[in-house]
Amino acid sequence: MTTQDGTADGVAPHNADGKEPARRDSLTLLTVATATLGAGAFVWPFLDSLNGTGGETADAVVDVDLTPLAPGQQIVVVWRGKPVFIVRRTPEALRRLQDAALAQRLRDPESRQYQQPKFAENWHRSAVPEYGVMVGVCTHLGCVPRYRPAPEASDRWPGGYACPCHGSRFDLAGRVFTGAPAPYNLPVPPYAMRGPTLLRIGADDADPAFDFSAIRQI
Pairing relation of β-strands 146-148 and 74-79? Predict the structure, then answer.
């Protein structure tokens, strides 16, 4: 997966001030694209080492072209040393997220805990329902949950994420199930849609008051 420039003539995009070109994919994307399976079981500090600096300012803004992302697929990008899941949810998946029976099985279905910007305090926990954007770090002990989008009737699994380390489960909006070791929903990073298929992670203009460093747990 390569970060596209978001322009028809191939000119690289610029940051909000119009001066500095955005970083290319080779510096910011973890080359993971999945249709039915998720990221492997590893801890995000390992990913933090990929950036070299490990600092909170490294890759502070990441632009992602969502055009190649098909319904039901997920990609994983690296932002500030952390894996960020970007999933294009199908209409069927969105209907399942609104199921009242599902909400009763979730620990924080209305996203009352401080784990997301204001714009994501909704049933889909995102700026637009179709695209979910979440930091892929289990809020129990930091493992990377696996992407399991297909529902399974055998254990009432609606599709979502399963942590391979201690069994925590999250739905496709990153909301944690009751009874899981993880105490909080998956964090949502600051981001904004710069166009129908252009996503900017790290943009703070959508909710200037949101402080990612002050969320409950990552």
Answer: unpaired
Domain boundaries, the chain: 30-204
Q: For the chain, how many residues are written?
A: 218
Q: Which 8-state DSSP code applies to residue 108?
A: S
Q: Which amino acid is at 53?
A: T
Number of neighbours of residue 102 by Cβ within 10 angstroms: 19
Q: Which residues are catalytic?
A: 166
DSSP per-residue string spanning 6-69: SSTT-PPPB-TTSSSBPPPHHHHEEEEEESS----S-BHHHHHGGGSS--TTTT--EEEE-TT-
Q: Residue written as tokens 């700026």?
A: 127
Sheet holding 74-79, edge to edge: 29-34, 74-79, 82-88, 131-135
Q: If you classify domain 30-204 with CATH, what class do you get? A: mainly beta
Tens digits of residue pLDDT in 147-179: 999 998 877 899 999 999 999 999 999 999 999
